[in-house]
Amino acid sequence: MNTQNRPTGRRGRAKQDKHERIMRAAKALFTHHGINGVTTQQVADEADVAIGTLFLYASTKAELLIMVQNTKFAAAIDDGLTAARAAAPSTDARHDAVSTAMALLRPVVVCIREHPDNGRTYLHELVFGDPGEAHRAEGLALAARLETGIASILDRTEPDITPERAALLARVITAIVHITTTASVFSELDDDTILADIRRQIRASVDGTTPSTPQHPIERPQP
Fold it and tell me: Which of 54, 76, 125, 178 is 20 to 30 A (C-alpha) from 103?
């Protein structure tokens, strides 16, 4: 049995146990009720810890959500990177780049949209919260890992794209994912529709041209 990451000593084990109980409680409550339907006291009660103890692990409800979402986000990125490595090569480099990028992004998009309010709040907190806070710093590191993965795909599959442009396009693509997955106007749409729209935007960004099919797959509200 691998015990490398297990805490040693009674105090360390007790701390780890409380952390795991808080994570399980927060995950269950956020999944069933969303961030707006949960209080920190409810999480503390569900985890069977005092509210003061809870605040030692996360000082706000937003930080609790970030803790939970970081775990899901990390798993989604792992799944996406595995899928991207397994993506079959194509004779069309641009098709290969877009398809491989979408293989990476699909589990990430599904993760963000699993509970729209949670995903929207999570990304908002990463962008606008204190980057020095530990849980946000972890989330930002995950976002950077995703961006690096996209840049690597573009650099590897697009011979005309320099590493510098690949890195810039990766930032553009992550912004596309952020906006398209969290915009309230798109919240009722299914994952496949959102993913199809993201694919079109990525193709336009990579090609530097307007997609051949001008109709946008998402019907936006008329003014």
Answer: 125
Answer yes or no: CATH 3.40.50.1110 is held by domain 8-57.
no
Residue spans of the domains in the chain: they are 8-57, 61-207
Strand runs (DSSP E) across the chain, as ranges? none
93: tokens are 């480099």
Count Cα neighbours of 50 within 13 Å in the Cβ-side half-sphere.
3
The CATH code of domain 61-207 reads: 1.10.357
Closest to 129 in 3D by CA, of 143, 112, 109:
143
pLDDT tens series, the chain, 223 aa: 444 555 567 777 888 999 999 999 999 999 999 999 999 999 999 999 999 999 999 999 999 999 999 999 999 999 999 999 988 565 555 558 899 999 999 999 999 999 989 999 999 999 999 999 999 999 999 999 999 999 999 998 888 899 999 999 999 999 999 999 999 889 889 999 999 999 999 999 998 765 555 445 555 545 4
Residue 196: its H or E element: helix 191-207
**CB contact at 8 A, 25 and 43:** yes
Phi and psi based region of residue 30 (left: phi greater than 0; alpha: psi -120 to 50; beta: remaining): alpha
Distance between start and end Cα atoms, the chain: 62
The token duo for 214 is 């001008």
pTM of the model: 0.85
